[in-house]
């Protein structure tokens, strides 16, 4: 029981600070050119997951996932942007005994070793560019996330991992408007645009569960962010602390 593991005073403490964090975040949101300290200083988790683990490469590329063992068997995992690094997919399937149906997407051709590795772990590779508009005749084909879901007959994603080199600012808000997903891991590349995207994700019902500054890009504030939807708290045995990112 996650709530039993959490001293109720911790929730009270997070709630007491939420108003100040929200005020600082609003300042960053309204700034013409938000700085790294403006954006990152108020950021803390909004949800407590006692089984939060970093899945994938120990170095660059690992993602924070809440309780992957709680994911329903045959749950759908989308890994958007891989560049032939399948450490996330391999690690996820290893610790869950191949519980997931994984779709890995990248605009570049995957290496033979990556394709062979994916084939061994119930994962499929698609060469495509994730975009705000579907263009099947483009090279490589362009897909919105929602159209990609339709292509493989899925109406819900358990875990969405996204590293699409800046396209997250258009792709992610568009997807959140009409689709169902429990957890999102996204690398956000532009610090000045980060507050707007965080607000959009929060307004869609997601709670921040972890952020991690990329050590290669500390000066520009490139970070990995991990979110859990409020409707999936019980499923993944997590507890809400206090929200401050949403309107």
TrEMBL record:
<dbReference type="InterPro" id="IPR026913">
    <property type="entry name" value="METTL24"/>
</dbReference>
<protein>
    <recommendedName>
        <fullName>Methyltransferase domain-containing protein</fullName>
    </recommendedName>
</protein>
<dbReference type="Pfam" id="PF13383">
    <property type="entry name" value="Methyltransf_22"/>
</dbReference>
<feature type="domain" description="Methyltransferase">
    <location>
        <begin position="46"/>
        <end position="200"/>
    </location>
</feature>
<dbReference type="InterPro" id="IPR025714">
    <property type="entry name" value="Methyltranfer_dom"/>
</dbReference>
<dbReference type="InterPro" id="IPR029063">
    <property type="entry name" value="SAM-dependent_MTases_sf"/>
</dbReference>
